[in-house]
Amino acid sequence: MSEQLIGAKSEVLFHFSIKLSDGSAADSTKVHNKPAKLFMGDGSLTENFEKCLLGLKAGDEKSFELEPEDAFGQPNPDNIYYVDRSKFGAETPAEVGSIIAFTQPDGTDLPGLIREVAGDSVTVDFNHPLAGQKVTFEVEILEVNN
After folding, report:
1. Dist CA 42 CA 111 (whole Å)
2. Which SS3 state, helix, strand or coil, does residue 102 take?
3. pLDDT attached to residue 2
4. Could you give the CA distance from residue 85 to residue 93 in angstroms, rounded to a whole number?
5. Tell me, what CATH number does 40's domain have?
């Protein structure tokens, strides 16, 4: 039986690490030794991250350098909002550096980073925290099912 290569519809069990250009880890499944399961094409990874996996097989370990445009994109100024400070309560105070989940009209939560608090105005950034960052995507493929 030949080894299965990752294709457009594969189910993949793998470890990954995302590192910033300074070498610090932004995310890793190895921290808790819990590999990720991915169904290629399901939208849980960006298309560019998935392209890195195509053609790999169980046992492969690879490292990919991704420019911001190919990873989490550039920061979008349209994703920065100014919210009245009165919208924040005692349970969720508006403190610079805090990440707060904001409930969307459809009921889903969207995390926002408090960038600035000035008087009654709170600047909330809804860009991905790694937007604008060049990253290294390291993978270890554990299992491939087609």
Report:
1. 21
2. strand
3. 61
4. 9
5. 3.10.50.40
Nearest to 100 by CA among 90, 114, 86: 114
Where in the sequence is the domain holding 84, given as residue range(s)?
77-125
C-alpha to C-alpha distance for 111 and 126, rounded to whole angstroms: 7
DSSP class of 51: H
The answer to whether 145 and 11 have CB atoms below 8 angstroms apart is yes
Q: What six digits make up the tokens of 31?
A: 């921290």
Q: Are residues 16 and 68 in the same domain?
A: yes
The per-residue pLDDT for range 96-122, each reduced to its tens digit, is: 999 999 998 999 999 999 999 999 999
Same domain for 51 and 84?
no
- Say how many C-beta atoms besides its own lie within 10 A of residue 116's C-beta: 13
Q: Would you say residue 1 has pLDDT above 60? A: no
CA atoms within 13 A on the CB side of 32: 5
First to last CA, the chain: 13
Hey, what are 56's tokens? 């790999």
Compute the distance between CA of residue 137 and CA of residue 109 in angstroms, rounded to an integer: 26
The pair of structure tokens assigned to 74 is 């550039």
Phi, psi of 53 (to 5 degrees): -85, -25
